[in-house]
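Blackboard transcription, Thursday session:
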Amino acid sequence: MYKIIAKEKLCPVVDLMEIEAPAIAKKAKTGQFVVVRVDEVGERIPLTLADWNAKKGTVTLVAMQVGTTTYKLSCLNAGDSMPDLIGPLGLPSEIENFGTVVCVGGGVGVAPVYPIARALRQAGNRIITVMGARSKDLLFWEDRLRSVSHELIVTTDDGSYARKGVVTEPLKEVLERDKQVSRVIAIGPAIMMKFCSLTTKPFGVRTIVSLNSIMVDGTGMCGCCRVSVGGATKFVCVNGPEFDGHQVDWDLLFARQRIYCDEERHSLELWKTRQCQHA
Amino acid sequence: MEEKPKAKLDLNRMPMPRQDPKVRAKNFNEVALGYTEEMALREANRCIQCPKRPCVNGCPVYVDIPDFIKAIRDNNMPEAVKALKSKNSLPGICGRVCPQETQCEDVCSLGKKGAPIAIGRLERYVADWERNHASNLTAPVELPPSTGKKVAVIGSGPAGLTCAADLAKMGHQVTIFEALHVAGGVLMYGIPEFRLPKAIVQGEVDYVKALGVEIRLDSVMGKLATVDELLENGYHAVFLGTGAGLPMFLDIPGENFNGVYSANEFLTRVNLMKAYLFPEYDTPIKIGKRVAVIGGGNVAMDAARCALRLGADEVHIIYRRSKVEMPARHEEVENAEEEGIIFKFLTNPKQFIGNDQGWITAMECYEMELGEPDASGRRRPLVKEGSEFIIDVDVAVVALGTTPNPLIPSTTRGLETRRNGTVVADEETGKTVKDRVWAGGDVVTGAATVISAMGAGKRAAASIDAYLKGK
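(Written on the board underneath:)
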């Protein structure tokens, strides 16, 4: 069992969990993920590490409530335990001194961008961060990202906070004004990562995205997470999760993310109904 | 069953009672129901206790078959259990999934004149008897004093469990590292409930634990710790029983459409994650109306029969050779046929066809014909030009086989691998070219059988023991 030692509500639909997992914390590297199973009938889902602390022996996960598993997760509190936490999985991010790097985080993708931006900063890069959310109440970790960035631009789709609009607009402006940018890291909803990749393509700036496909085992066993990158089939779990955004077949990713949308809706409705009956 | 006059030699084996095909095609309960005491006695009485005992050498782990059969006959079940388990720590599993027809039963002396003894069914009978009777009827496990030597076993499938059990019986301290959240490897994620109930696997895993073996779940070795780190941190030897877990795909157009599964994914969702109980269990699976399973091995049979039980109207097995070349066990093919699985032989997919939502709708296939024998000794399937035809399907399962996961070889210094990803190890001892590291089972041979993996685990345990005692 893996004990939750701290929980924080980052916004109404996003929770942070700090979980005891000393062996994973000792080995974790930037950009890697873990697979979690929340209870004995639970499915296995991947979550990219939002942080870890080898000394303390903990990993930090940030999850948005979207399906049964993340809703169940949000019901757990400090002191509770979950049966399974598996990792660290996937390949680590490439961290070196590239020069100037733009880090883009959208929605809950802000969480996994943070340790990458921090590592890139420590490696000597100049960090320009663009973070965005649909509205003010969905924004979190502005302070954390500011602390690792030389420049921070915040957007909200509805203009309820900071700059109104989506992240691709400031991303384009930064690329137009700063020819030193040698790399872009974009993490967020698949649609955001697609449009970030389309935005950077004309500038010829290498763009790394962290794909969030459906997985079962997370170790290369099932192939559920397969994507097409540069025309070749890759497994996100072992060949990724980070890939060249200009090479990803986004339409295939979108389609494969929707495989179980009917079942997921049904499962969540059933869970919510049962929660109400318990309440 | 008709009564036969008692002859000196009874050449007909006692049939195995099974669930009715129409009923079982709609449930995940075990198909074969097991012998009753009368049935087991009658079958055991057929054994002539021949002095040559060819069956023992037909068994990859050399179970003293005539001895446990004699004990059944003598109505001494605790003795039968003892005789069986002295060589085989997982008899409930082997009695169900071993291909006895090509091993012990193939060389049975009775086989020259009639049906060989149903050794597998009797093995299962003994294992189930033990499980159903209070364990105090059988002697508790006696372990030798501890040698103080620590061995790490990576993978808790048949090879790892067997190796760990044998090492524990030799007095060594064994820790198994398992990547998944349950122990058992392919026995849990691969073989379906209706062929190998998970409670049986759990029972035999518990037996291995009772021998003092520690099992650490959720431990992906190569990521959480490397083999070299294990060797540096107090383990005197390491056994790799990591299996062949990577699915092979056809590499044809359309293979990434929604609804196209690897057999590994399909079976893992059903067996390990219990998707057949969705939404009580959270893991979903697409229930096809018309399902095609590509391949002719046991895994293909398992996937097809799972698809049927999930509620498919029609399930096709698409195999590129003919029935005689199918690698699946005859019994499983027969079971599948009885349940209504449709076999399309000499057929091979050319491409998967999908709709604009990214879902598979059909498969375009070639008709095949058989040419000269290939390296495997089987006749090579050749495409009949211009023979393309369409089969409408909404779920397809690719069951072409599996290769070893590179996670361990790629993170271990000085391990030798072949081009297909298998680890090079001595056939007799399982010793790899790396100091203090042994390997066995599918990770060495490529996908094979449960019992051959167990045999490899056993031989490696003996070799590790000799090494540790010589130190």
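Lecturer's comment: The first strand of chain B starts at residue 150 and ends at 154.
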